[in-house]
Amino acid sequence: MNEKLCCANFYQTDYARLIFGASMHPGGLGLTKELGNKIGITKNSKVLDVACGVGTSAIFLAKSFGCHVTGIDLGAKNVDEAVKNSASEGTSAYTEFKVSDAEKIEFPDEAFDHVMCECAFCLTPDKKRASDEVYRVTKHGGSIGISDIVVRGNLPQNLRDALYRFVCVLEAKNEKEYVDYLHDAGFQKVESEDRKETLLVLLDDIKKRVFAAELLIGLGKMKLEIDLDKTKKIIQELRQCVDSGLVSYVLITGKK
Ligand SMILES: C[S@@+](CC[C@H](N)C(=O)[O-])C[C@H]1O[C@@H](n2cnc3c(N)ncnc32)[C@H](O)[C@@H]1O
After folding, report:
1. Which of 52, 80, 170, 252 is the most buried (most CB within 10 A)?
2. Which contiguous run of DSSP H or E holds residue 32?
3. Domain total for the chain?
4. How does pLDDT run across 6-29, given as a tens digit for each residue?
5. Structure confidence by residue, pLDDT tens digits, 110-155
6. How close is the Cα of 120 to the center of ligand 1, in Å?
7. What's the 244 CA to ligand 1 centre distance in angstroms?
8. Which of 3, 6, 11, 205 to mutate to test the pocket of ligand 1 (most atoms within 8 A of CB)?
9. Packing angle between helix 127-137 and helix 175-185, nearest 10 degrees?
10. How far apart are CA 61 and CA 12, in angstroms?
11. What CA–CA distances, in Å, run from 95 to 23, 26, 43, 210?
12. What does the alpha-carbon distance between residue 73 and residue 105 come to, in Å, rounded to a whole number?
């Protein structure tokens, strides 16, 4: 199986659902709303959510802005779940979901007013292609909003190995590189803003979820074939990297 599918498959596992919850990015839906406002989403917008996971942000954007949202994800199971979630939230008329690769978006040129991509640009092995693709499908006068993990230097090797299995973020770059990719694709006024605090909160939340899972496993009410002690160790090491500024979370916006 290729690297991209392996990564998408990870985000469909019970383990990924356990550690992230439904909204699989730091800052949760609060940050989604902030990003939506920053890039100017309105009731009349057609929005593309690249790497939409189980549709949590797409459904939220449709509900809070009244806009139409198309979500794409490489994971077919995620897409199926997004369709079901949207139906149960009563937003089917405002959303559609499709299996598609961020590096080969199966929509025509300039199909969307705004493109969002939360915690997933870091996962694409070919960021030039992904940047060219999001630029192609954005209308002139439209905008892009990304929130993502940044790595500003070399991660310790043991953390690199562990993180690959944990969240496959090894393709994460620093914010200047992300900004350059988007700028080179043609976006203008590309700006980034550090949101490190969202990552610290997420790491704390993951710790609490792991603790709750340990309790449930202890009570025989949950089964998980993953070593949660290793997860706790990774969280601790990752937190040190966030504290030192080596790893962070950023918002990046740009206009076409
Ligand atoms: C960390 S999750 C974020 C999901 C969602 N954006 C959210 O914030 O809840 C990363 C998502 O990226 C998807 N993904 C990874 N590589 C992809 C690619 N090349 N094209 C489309 N989706 C991809 C995974 O399947 C997963 O659903």
Report:
1. 52
2. helix 28-38
3. 1
4. 777 777 888 888 878 777 888 999
5. 999 999 999 999 889 899 999 999 999 999 999 999 999 999 998 8
6. 5
7. 27
8. 11
9. 50
10. 22
11. 17, 23, 13, 32
12. 10
Task: Tell me which of 89-93, 160-164, 171-175 is least confident.
Answer: 160-164
Ligand 1 pocket test, candidate residues 48, 74, 137, most atoms within 8 A of CB: 74
Angle between helices 196-218 and 228-243 (to 10 degrees): 160
**Which helix H or strand E contains 163, and what residues bound it?**
helix 157-166
Nearest-angstrom CA–CA distance, 160 and 173: 13
Separation CA 45–CA 121 (nearest Å): 22
Residue type, 131: S
For the segment 167-213, what is each residue's pLDDT rounded down to a tens digit?
656 678 899 999 999 999 999 999 999 999 999 999 999 999 888 88
The residue whose two tokens read 């969280």 is 235
Evaluate whether 51 touches 149 at the Cβ level (below 8 Å): no
Whose tokens are 């690199």? That residue is: 160
Q: How far is the CA of 219 from the centre of ligand 1 (A)?
A: 33
Please give the torsion angle defined by the CA atoms of residues 9, 15, 19 and 21, in that order, rounded to the nearest 10 degrees: 70
Compute and round to an integer the Cα radius of gyration of the chain: 18
Structural domain harbouring 235: 3-255
pTM of the model: 0.93
pLDDT at 164 over 80: no
Q: Which residues approach ligand 1 with their CB closer than 6 A?
A: 4, 7-8, 11, 23-25, 51-53, 56-57, 73-75, 78, 101-103, 118-120, 123-124
Q: Can you read off the two tokens belonging to residue 180?
A: 């350059």
CATH number for 86: 3.40.50.150
